[in-house]
Amino acid sequence: MKSPLMLAALAAPLSAQVLAQTDSQVLEPTVVTATRTAEPAGETLATVSVIDRAEIERRQARSVPDLLRTLPGVSIAQSGGPGQSASVMLRGTNADHVLVLVDGVRVGSATLGTTSLQDLPVDQIERIEVVRGPRSSLYGSEAIGGVIQIFTRRGGGALTPRFSVGVGELGTASVSGGLSGGGERAWFNLGANFEQTDGINACAGRPFPYAGCGVDQPDRDGYSSHGVSARAGYAFSERAEVEFHLLSAESANDFDGSRFSGNQARSSQQVFGANATLRPLDAWTLTLTAGRSWDDYRVFYEDAAAAVFDQFVDRFQTERDSLSLQSDVTIAAGQLVSLGVDYVDDRVSGTVDYAEDARDNLGVFGQYQGSFGAFDLKLSARQDDNQQFGSHTTGSAALGYLFANDIQVALSYGTGFKAPTFNELYYPGFGNTALDPEESESIELMANGPLPLPGRMRGDWQLSLYQAEVDDLIAYDSATFAPANVDSARIRGLEAAADVRWDDWTLAGNLTLLDPENRSDGANDGNLLPRRAEQSLQLDLDRTLGRWRAGATLQLVGERYDDLANQVDLDAYALLDLRLEYAFNPALRLQGRLANALDETYETAYLYNQPGRAFYLTLRYQP
Known about the structure:
This protein is mostly beta strands. A hairpin with a 7-residue loop joins strand 1 (about 30) and strand 2 (about 40). Helices cover about 5% and strands about 55% of the residues. The protein has a 22-stranded antiparallel β-barrel. The protein has a five-stranded mixed sheet with strand order 3-8-9-6-7. It is built from six helices and 33 strands. It holds the Pfam family Plug. Keywords: Cell outer membrane, Ion transport, Membrane, Porin, Receptor, Signal, TonB box, Transmembrane, Transmembrane beta strand, Transport.
């Protein structure tokens, strides 16, 4: 650990035990992503973070990557300012080792293997669950580093309108609104949003020698987006209910590029799904889920000086159909058995002529969850049969013990895999159809419990130690001029988090120490994987005083490298965000946020700029 942030990082768990917010009981969130069944987060035996609607509004976040960067074990690399491509890495694994779901439906690009999280509208999100660690034994491919599931707003209750308007620096303006309701048996939510910004100069590229984006275009790269969401359901009785959901996001952003690569992108992400839940018996629940997602990416070139406008360059489109049937049976008190089958069909199209443009995957899984006094046991296994790479088996096991002082300790082991993308398999002149899936083995020791605090102070802590070995990583092989299973990595990490609440105060902190070692043969053996910081620390302080609420977030990120050879440094940085809120009444609030208050100059990817100090103001109405 080479960064001077090390001393501050080691002090994080101690400093997070000082102040807090309220003496009222804080209810533990219920999560569904860790085990595909609803249970309190503390009973999953997995490392889970939940960002709910109240947290989204408290942070005044403007994008999904902006929210995720505050979590332990998360690394973000963004190619410029607002709306630019963002890679999200969990626990040091690759960006395409993260499975992303929206309301239970798989989303993302089958050609790249990643999801454009920066385009998903924050105003349409009710909750985000982030499970860190392998989950292939329940979800199949991609879930080597973990799973991110985004839930849209659900609605229910009385008819309730909402809206927000915002302005800020860089020519930023936003507006969103919605209507929810449904009464006792039904629920619905309708929402829409629009945002635009002039942005910043995304890239300080170097044409000679080629680096960054490879061009020098010192202009502002703007971004605009608009989206709609709809979710509705009805409970016929306690034993039967049905729900439908839709999320659509359209965006346009400028970037620095050439006539060959383009410099304007127009993206569309859509997901539509339906699910039905039946409870034929008190101990038996059946869930049927179906969905379709689209990822459409179009590239254009514009050069006003040369009178070139909207010149079409490329298009990549993914259509994904998914169907899932899951049966959960309580076989005895505290004993739950789940059996399920997943079917996914991917189709790609666009300007690239792939040798194969479709493939399907059939996965069958089973899970056992049992409680035996102070012991909890979770076992799961899955078999995937993919049209292109054949069969693959994964599994996981976790054992937890709850002590009398409410401290829980859990040991878990899991395997994961990642199927090659269409680009890696079939891209003309580049793909390799002989590729095998990437594979992983992980072990984790986790502990959590209440903090021993005096008086009205309340707090919790969590600690995780883990190691993951990832084999058959796909990388470019200079000997064959094609991708091949030539890389491997060993990743060790520690994550610590704590929060304290006392009257009108809250203080929370988290720390990540990471050793992402490249174990590939050759000159890079022993180097650090690029764009992963060895240390990162975050501290959050908030206070409510009558109608006022003020807060601050400090994030410290250590040094990283941008390349496999560890020759290109990315400096450590410190980001301080300040926020203030005034409630005119329980429904109407005015919020202000000063982002990057220290005006830090930093990069998360080499030669790609990040925004400096900027102020944003939001008026929010939510009865």
